[in-house]
Amino acid sequence: MSSAIHIYISPDTAQQELIKHTLNTIFFNKGLTCVFTDHKDDELITVGYSDQNDFVVSEQFHQLLAQSVFSHQQQLSDNGNIVNKFGGTDFISTISYLVNSFQEYYDTDPDQYGRFKYTNSLQHKLNSVENNTVQQIIDYLFSSHPKLSGLKTTNRKSRVFLTHDIDSVYGAVKEDGRYALDKLMPFEILRLIYNASLGKPDWMNMERIMKIEAEFGYKSNFYWLLVKNKQNSDYDFHSSAINKEFTSVKQRGGENGIHKSMGRSTFAEEIKTFGSLPQGNRFHFLKFTLPGGYDLIEENGLKLDTSLGFSPVFGLRNSFGQPFRPFNLAQNRPYNFVEAPQILMDRTFYNLNMPLVEAKKKFFDFVEKNKYNCVFTLNFHNNFFTELKYRGYTQLYRDILAGLKEMGIEGIMQSQIIEEYRKL
Questions:
Q1: 41 — pLDDT class (breaks 50, 70, 90)
Q2: DSSP one-letter code for 157
Q3: What is the pTM of this model?
Q4: Disulfide check for 53: which of 46, 112, 114, 144 has CB 3.0–4.6 Å away?
């Protein structure tokens, strides 16, 4: 890191800990650190409600937070920014609002799975879900603000975080079998049944996934369901077959985590089933709400979550492409875990019936625009590595890895994300 930047926040400013955390996030993004001082000096960067400050924050934003008003319709202007009382854009509060997904807090209009609806989001309103808006704001500040433009900054080359949710391993006979039946492929039906009878179902393919990744010099992270029922997994996590795959992941240098189930099972119960405290989690079906979901992650001692993505669309649920530590408003401090936003999920493209050539282009268009200061979190389920119902997705994955390797984009594991971004 470069030398520290000294910052003074006017004592009459509310939400000072939130401001400090947001500034830490901004400066960390550029390879800089902050030191906050109680002594005002013209050479310092100053923050407050007065227009005499370098950054003028919105008092109304803080007042609305104190009143638990979170909706973007009430907090943000029509162009998606928070405005201070002088009519200027409050970049700090805008970043605070976006990064922490405050628009989702205490949502009263969830979808059928209890999730925050994409159609209710600011990203939908502005058609901005594929925009790394927070990064664009940060880049703008460091190129235009007189006290920031001269600073020597560092940009991290973007990396890829490869993840796999393991929802089903025995579903091939039913799902691929139905596809084969519809396509009049009797030998494929027989093959699926035969493989399953031998205890080698087609979706028990973690070794295949890791071999594909190894061809391109990557490793990945697997998230396992701990509850077997209709809502969740079709496998017993403690079975010898699953244990073999779980162990193989570790032996090959991959990492395992928990895929928190839907239903009444608690984190504590599932962690006990897991056998040790996992480092990371992704909620099954991305089913969680805020701030309750974040509270659960922290209360149960996990260090990383990677659930922050919109299931219906590709892109950024909080308009920020880097892992970050969310802010705990109730306790007036950052949470102790890292959130790594999910950008791409195979099921999204499948449900949209998107041609895979278009899906590939969409992803690499995003990569081209975000070569620095981004972590591309990909979620490819194991059942998509087959050539019947999900034909073509294995090749899409290969094409993505090949393209990323050619661009020199390295992989990052959940343990590395935790180590690097918990410093915030």
A1: confident
A2: B
A3: 0.96
A4: 46
pLDDT digits (tens, 9 = 90+) for 150-178: 999 999 999 999 999 999 999 999 999 99
Structure tokens at 122: 């600011």
CA 63 distance to own-chain centroid: 29
Let me know the angle formed at the C-alpha of 349 by 343 and 352, rounded to the nearest 5 degrees. Answer: 125
- Rg of the chain in Å (alpha carbons): 23
| CA gap 332, 14 in Å, rounded | 11
The SS3 of residue 338 is strand
The whole-angstrom separation of Cα 48 and Cα 46 is: 7
| Ramachandran category for residue 340: left, alpha or beta (phi over 0 → left; psi -120 to 50 → alpha) | beta
Q: Can you spell out the DSSP letters for 355-416? A: -HHHHHHHHHHHHHHTSBS-EEEEE--GGGSSSSTTTTHHHHHHHHHHHHHHTTPPB--HHH
Q: CB–CB of 247/256 below 8 Å?
A: no
Name the pairing type of β-strands 280-281 and 304-305: parallel
The residue whose two tokens read 């409600």 is 49
- End-to-end Cα spacing for the chain: 13
Name the 3-class secondary structure at 183.
coil
Torsion, Cα of 114, 393, 212, 369 (10° steps): -80
Q: Peptide bond preceding 323: is omega within 30 degrees of 0, i.e. cis? A: no
Report how far residue 184's alpha carbon sits from residue 127's, in angstroms, rounded to the nearest whole number.
42
Which secondary-structure segment (H or E) carries 10?
A: none
Tokens encoding 7: 């910052």
Query: Which among 283, 239, 237 is positioned nearest to 263, based on CA atoms?
Result: 283
Span 74-126, pLDDT tens digits: 999 999 999 999 999 999 999 999 999 999 999 999 999 999 999 999 999 99
Greatest pairwise CA separation for the chain in angstroms: 79
Cα 65 to Cα 364: distance, rounded to the nearest angstrom? 37
Q: Other C-beta atoms within 10 Å of 329: how many?
A: 18
Burial of 222 (0-12, 13-18, 19+ CB in 10 A): buried
Query: Would you state the pLDDT for residue 1?
Result: 43
Nearest one of 3, 327, 294, 343 to 160, comparing CA atoms? 343
Cα angle 239-243-247, degrees, rounded to a multiple of 5: 180
How many angstroms separate the CA atoms of 177 and 189, rounded? 5
